[in-house]
Every structure is written in C-alpha cells, then in structure tokens.
Amino acid sequence: METLPSVKDLSVKQKTVLLRTNYDVSLKNGEVTSGTRIDESLATINYLFGQQAKIILLSHLGRPEGKVNPGLSLKPVVNYLGQLLKKEVPLFSTINEIDKNQPMVMLENLRFWSGEENNDLNFTKSLANLGDFFINDAFACSHRQHASIVGLPQFLPSALGLDFLKEVEVLSGVRENPRRPVTLILGGAKEDKLEVMEKLLDWANAILIGGKLSQLINRSSPTKVIMACLNPDGKDITLESVEKFKKIIVQSGTIVWAGPMGYYEDEKWSMGTREIAKAIIGSGA
C-alpha cells in the first residue's frame, strides 16, 4: 500500500494546527448520544498536545445548508470533548473571533458558511490564515469537494490524522484479503453510500440495505443486493427484514457495516440497528 503522509511526518511542535475532524454525531435534547467519533479523534489530539501544538478544531454537523441553525451548533460537541479532556474547549461562532493563544479551540459548524460546501476560495483562505499546518482526520468526509477537505491542502502543509490512517489500514486489509463470504451492510439516509455500493458490487458476496437508503434503490438491483422493508412509520426496518439479514450475517466471513437500520437514537426505533449489531457480534466474522 502506498505510504500516506502522517501528522507525525510534519514539524508541528509549538505550531498552530487546523485539525479537520468528523464530529457529525447524533444529538438528543442538546446532548451527544453517541460520542464514538469524538473518542476516536483523541489519538491525534493527544499527539498534537504532546508536540505542544495549538489546535483549531474544524467540523460540520448535519445539513444546515449555509445558514446558522442553533439546533446544529457544535456546543454539545465541545461540552462532550471538554469532559473527555477535563478542560474547557472554547467554541467560536466567527473566524475572526478565534483566540489562537488558547491550547485548543473549535470553530462553529463549518456548514453554517456556504463557502464550506461550495469550496469557496475566499472562505478557504480565511481558514488557512488561522494556522501553520492542516491535518485531515475526517476519513468518512474525505470524498467531499469541500473547503475544509480539498481546499485547505492547497494553502497549508498537510497530512492525515492517526484515526484516518487507522481506518485506511483496516479497510485496506479487508479489501485485499477478506475472509469469504463478504457481506456489506449499508444504512442511514445518505445517498453517497449508493456510490460505495456500486464500487463494491463485484467485491461483496451480499449487500444488505436498510434505513431510508432502502427506499432509494431500484428494486430490480442484482440479486446479491437485498433490501429491507421499513415499518409503516418508516423509522426502522421490520422484524422480518431483521431475520432475513441475520441468516446472511451468520454465514459471513467478513462484514463491513456503515449506517444504522433506522432512527436508532430513539429507543422506539432502535430494534433493527440493535439486532443487526448483536447478530454481527455473534457471527464471529
């Protein structure tokens, strides 16, 4: 595998680093309900702290479409992160307000600015002016042509974060030498997963589709593509679909799962996601 540039390859000691993370997490009543993505960013954050670097965190949350939406503020994220690190993480609502003398700060939801998704040159430059280096630790976002993903590397020395590199290593191993049969499970509502399905169609032995994604796929898809049915409310897959998926999961040698089966944040609609997770754990894959 080609050697990718790592944060450890850069001379970040006592420098200011723009760290692009993926803190697009689930919220309920103004609190983070699943902090796994935040937890996984700590490897890079702690490395940078060890280098006495100052960190400016960049992330998006949801789809505010270039407008300020208080319900999609990153405030719950900095609260969660502050508890993990046992230190306050200031959140700034404008680029000009950012205090670069703080050990670590976060800029508000990048998608509050239309320039993020438009990859606007002026917006990118205003971000780049904040730091000396750029680190991308947002593996799941890196297919997007957004300012904080593809724009910043044009202006700052750049590399990948430790969690990003870990994801690449794991997926490369799975892709190159999987235990057969391979089952790919896709869920959620993001249509870009359909592109993933197309690219992995020949590689996977079975592709299981749940969540709202199952409503977006042509029912005449190849036989290896198996779509769940949703409950009448459309917020979870049916028990019959769970049982159908389980029969395939239990026979799998390798399982790659991306996206929930329903609106799992609410207990009423968590059955499908929970049962599929239990089946995967019990499969031995």
From TrEMBL:
E.C. number(s) listed in UniProt: 2.7.2.3
EC class: transferase
Domain of life of the native organism: Bacteria
GO cellular component, one term: cytosol
Stretches that traverse the bilayer: none
UniProt-recorded Gene Ontology molecular function terms: ADP binding; ATP binding; phosphoglycerate kinase activity
Gene3D superfamilies in the record: Phosphoglycerate kinase, N-terminal domain
Record-linked InterPro entries: Phosphoglycerate_kinase, Phosphoglycerate_kinase_N, Phosphoglycerate_kinase_sf
Catalyzed reaction equations: (2R)-3-phosphoglycerate + ATP = (2R)-3-phospho-glyceroyl phosphate + ADP
Keywords of this entry: ATP-binding, Kinase, Nucleotide-binding, Transferase
GO biological process: gluconeogenesis; glycolytic process
Family, per entry: Belongs to the phosphoglycerate kinase family.
PANTHER family found in the cross-reference section: PHOSPHOGLYCERATE KINASE, PHOSPHOGLYCERATE KINASE 1, CHLOROPLASTIC-RELATED
Protein name (database record): Phosphoglycerate kinase
Organism of this sequence: Candidatus Shapirobacteria bacterium CG_4_9_14_3_um_filter_39_13
High-level lineage: Bacteria, Candidatus Shapironibacteriota
